[in-house]
């Protein structure tokens, strides 16, 4: 069922290489560049965003796409709803104009007892399911981002360096060693934050692919299905 559902929203690239996937905890397969000071202190999203609010160039992660579609599948409404309508829509010849395709699929839907109101409401139902999934991800992402930043450790090391700089000559080596640790820690933090940010972008890109299509279909159903 998941494969069938995935085919409704995603056009597979036959030349694409398989992905190893990433989680909110890691980005092991990715090479990331250090982020700027401004980026490291940016506030993470606190609430789900609509597809139109998401701005990312990251490639959707297959693992996240599967996770979102699994949530949709688990909350599939009984009867002929938006998902069945989209399947019917997709089965129509591509040479038909958009309005004709939406109306033809709706004619089929009506024979199954569906109405334009039910189709639009069920489409919104799936948007709400996806928003819940985004909310759970962003909550986990926020925690991981705070951990990756290591704010308390950075402040402690900076305080230690400042104190040792005031000490007498024999402590100069210790000061240099502490500064080296501080710089290494900051470098590690930048890499960790960049990985978390990249994972977030991949999730939001996957969300935009699925939820964005549903939103577009809802607008078209509202326009065409009278």
Structure, briefly:
The chain is an all-alpha fold.
Task: Describe the SSE topology.
Layout: H1 2-9, H2 37-40, H3 62-74, H4 82-91, H5 98-111, H6 116-149, H7 151-164, H8 172-224
Helix pairs in contact: 3-8, 4-5, 6-8, 7-8
Structural write-up:
This protein is mainly α and 226 residues long. The protein has one domain. Helix content is 66%, strand content 0%. The protein has 8 helices and no strands. Helix 7 (151-164) packs antiparallel against helix 8 (172-224). The chain starts with a helix and ends with a helix. The relative contact order is 0.19.
What are the key terms here?
66% helix, rod-shaped
Please state the average pLDDT score: 82
Main sheet specs: none
Radius of gyration: 24 Å
What structural class is derived from the secondary structure elements?
Answer: mainly alpha
Distance between the termini: 31 Å
**Strand residues, percent:** under 5%
3D shape: rod-shaped
Oligomer: single chain
Order of helices and strands: HHHHHHHH
